[in-house]
Amino acid sequence: MSHALIPRYKEIGTFRCGAFFLPWLLVDRGVGLVIGLGPSIKPGTYRYRYDKHGRDPLREERYHVTSRQARLMAELTHSVLEIEQGKREEFTAMPSEERQRIESASIGLYAFPVRSDWIEKCTEFAAWAPRSGGFWIR
Fold it and tell me: Which of 2, 46, 95, 100 has the fewest Cβ atoms within 10 Å of its own Cβ atom?
């Protein structure tokens, strides 16, 4: 299930992303704290604050994000970008033996750099969100 973010200002176009990108950005990287969305106890679960219509931000259509929240989310996404790009540069600069050792280690010990296409998607979102005038998650 992919996600579509429908802007208040229709002329900037709908932001589309895959099923895993939005939960990663909002829950795993903390950008969703702006709308009261964050990780829960069990892996893959989250806690959230309902919108004024009682909707869940990732499961129900038309969850509303205000213009102010969208601008804050864009600012946080810029921070996520800096961190993820820095991790990618650090990982690339490591000697190949060290990279192989880290890659073969148990899951959860290391924070691997995110995929490059997700860095591009973050860049797009950070530029799109403040111009959206607020949006609805679908």
Answer: 95
pLDDT value, residue 7: 98
Whole-angstrom distance, CA of residue 74 vs CA of residue 14: 16
Q: How many CA atoms lie within 13 A of 113 on its CB side?
A: 19
User: Binning pLDDT at 50, 70 and 90, where does residue 116 land?
Assistant: very high
CB burial readout 18-40, b (16+ within 10 A) else e: eeebbbbbbbebebbebbebeee
Q: Which residues have a Cβ under 8 Å from the Cβ of 33 and sit 6 or more positions away? A: 76
138, 2 contact by CB (below 8 A): no
Q: What is the pTM of this model?
A: 0.88
Residue-wise pLDDT for 37-78, tens only, equals 999 999 888 998 888 888 888 876 789 999 999 999 999 999
Rounded to whole angstroms, the Cα distance separating 26 from 41 reads: 16
